[in-house]
Every structure is written in C-alpha cells, then in structure tokens.
Design brief:
The chain is α+β, with helices and mostly antiparallel strands. It contains three helices and seven strands, in the order H-E-E-H-E-E-E-E-E-H.
Length: about 130
C-alpha cells in the first residue's frame, strides 16, 4: 500500500513539473532592454512621423509593445503583407530595430521581420496618434 501511494505521489510531482514547464507566458516581451532605448521613431498609417524621446512616453510605448502575445506565426518578409501598416523604430546606442504594426480582420498585430508576429489588444495607430499628440 505504501509503495502504491509513493508511486502515485512521485507520478503526480513529475506530471506537475512537466505541465508547469509547458506553460507559456502570454506576453512576448519584444523589447527586453527598454532602459537602453534613446528614442522611438513612429510612422503612422498616414505617413506622418514622430520621434518620441520623452522617457515616460518611451516606457509607455514599450509597455504596450511588450503586452503583445506571440501568435506562433513566422515573419518571412521584409515588410508585412498588409494593405496599410505603420513602422516602429527602436533606437539605442548599439543599434536600431524595426517593427511594423497593422490591422488584419479586426485584430491588431506587431511584426518584426524574420523574427515573429505578435497580437495586440488595441488599435496601435490610434494609440500612437494620442502618444504623439497628432
């Protein structure tokens, strides 16, 4: 009887460990080192551009970007296959990263070319307009 209970307990612990290891964080954390960002350059759907350098606004934008969830879709091209899209350029001393955002079938996405596609829960073009005071 004790061996059966011990076997059951060990089995449940192993199953628990396996299942907890399989659980994924919904948020993608696209921007890992936001403290290194000097500015974010935004280009809206209408072609207007704005450079965001104010630390508080940069952090707000990063929070929204990092709130996106991975779709598990692959990005296989330089720009998104969308009718209209905007661009987000993350500028640090070391480099620049370009992300694109767009809407498809009523859902909002961020795409980093050849890295991944992420789904957002808000209209990024409207959000960026409000952040940029346009």
């Amino acid at each position: 009887m004790k061996k059966a209970n011990l076997f059951f307990l060990i089995t449940m612990i192993v199953i628990g460990c396996v299942l907890s290891g399989c659980a994924e964080n919904d948020n993608a954390e696209i921007v890992k080192e936001s403290s290194k960002l000097q500015e974010i350059n935004l280009t809206l759907y209408n072609g207007k551009s704005v450079n965001v350098t104010e630390l508080e606004k940069v952090e707000d934008i990063v929070k929204v970007i990092n709130g996106a969830a991975s779709t598990k879709e692959e990005s296989v091209q330089d720009v998104p296959d969308a009718e209209q899209y905007g661009r987000i350029i993350l500028v640090s001393k070391e480099d620049e990263r370009t992300l694109y955002y767009y809407e498809r079938e009523g859902k909002y996405y961020i795409e980093e070319p050849y890295v991944g596609i992420y789904q957002c829960d808000q209209d990024l073009n409207s959000y960026f307009k409000s952040i940029a005071d346009l």
